[in-house]
Amino acid sequence: MTYKIYTLGCKVNEYESEIISELLENHGYIKSEKPDVCIVNTCTVTNKADSKSKKLLRSLRRNNPNSLIIAMGCKVQNDTTDLEYDIAIGNQDKTKILDYIKEYQGKKSYVKNIKNADFENMNLDNFQRTRAYIKIEDGCDNYCSYCIIPFVRGHVRCKKHEEVIKEAERLIRHGHKEIVLTGIHTGHYFDNDYSFADLLEDLVGLNGLKRLRISSIEITELDDKFLKVLKNSKILVNHMHIPLQAGSDEILKQMNRKYDTKYFIDKIKKIRAIRPDISITTDVIVGFPGETEEFFQETVQTIKKINFTKIHVFPYSDRKGTKASKMKNHVPENIKKQRVKKLLELSKELELNYMNKFLNESLTFIPEVYKDGYLIGHTENYLLVKAVGTEDLKGKLVEVTLEKINYPYIESKVLTSACR
């Protein structure tokens, strides 16, 4: 049997797709561009994500009329009525996919109520990418007023810390130099009295691990214990992704974000007191209901004050079933587009400023891609490097001199004596 997996959305979906791929291949399935089984791991974080999931499934049905079409993930958990599929699996029991394929006799949905689900244990032996992900947590209990994800991923539940460490050790043995911890609400990780900071402390002590990265973490989870690990270990990389979502206290309150701008700024100051050159990237939503021009300008000023490295900008997407969907004063689409454009321009300006700080310096990067004679990958502070080199350096720690900005890359020269 042949298969192909199509993954939409976040790093959690990417990890889960790797799990499914490993399961299938361990049972004799082979990847193919003409698959017997087409699997789509869907996303529902925005209306655009819904649309992508629907279009992809329709396209696969049209172009692969004899293939088994499996839809799974967040869009499926939220609503299957407008999806093309033979088998539908929500956000529970994805690891039972082989059983579902074996017993298939006609269109069937295996979507279960996610509200009280346990953590579905998933463990990888290897990861097909240079940077390896480990899913340590699932679900979210924050219920931000704009977000559908708690309803489709369920409550917070976590992998046992012993399992996380064993998985990390396996990935290191397979040659992975960098591990990325991921989850729906990664920083909310816990295992009884064992905290997220405890997990970080244990992981940075593993032999052979060169980099540990957190996919995303909330500002409210950066407690003193976490900051101590950040201070004491260089294995924890010089980059953090911390969602701001809005730089106006009134909008943050309406979003149910659990902090104000002063709290956010004060915590960033503590981080930079420990790591002065750290790269801090963020997410911002524009056009939230009630966002006036004054509130938007407050967000712009907050971003400038914090001096992020890069901003991932999202126009507010109305998700049925969320509190924000019922709010008044929704912002017109043309104004959302204008505000997105302004923040993307600001993001590029901030990113270029950060890049310029490192020109003519030597940093280490891990090549993730080899293409047309170039190695492409990220430094620990998430600068995107492009350097002439050979394919055998892919996945290794490679020291380079950063020579020239060719946005979004920094063109660099490999120091051949410093590759390992």
Please give a structural write-up.
This protein is α/β, with parallel strands linked by helices and 420 residues long. The protein has four domains: 2-109, 3-Layer(aba) Sandwich (Rossmann fold), CATH 3.40.50.12160; 114-237, Transcription Regulator spoIIAA; 241-356, Transcription Regulator spoIIAA, CATH 3.30.750; 362-419, Nucleic acid-binding proteins (OB fold (Dihydrolipoamide Acetyltransferase, E2P)), CATH 2.40.50.140. Helices cover 33% and strands 25% of the residues. The chain contains twelve helices and 21 strands. The strands form six sheets. A six-stranded parallel β-sheet has the order 2-1-3-4-5-6, with helices on both faces. A five-stranded mixed barrel has the order 17-18-19-21-20. Strand 4 (68-73), helix 3 (74-78) and strand 5 form a beta-alpha-beta unit. It is globular and about 60 Å long. The model has no long low-confidence stretch (mean pLDDT 96).
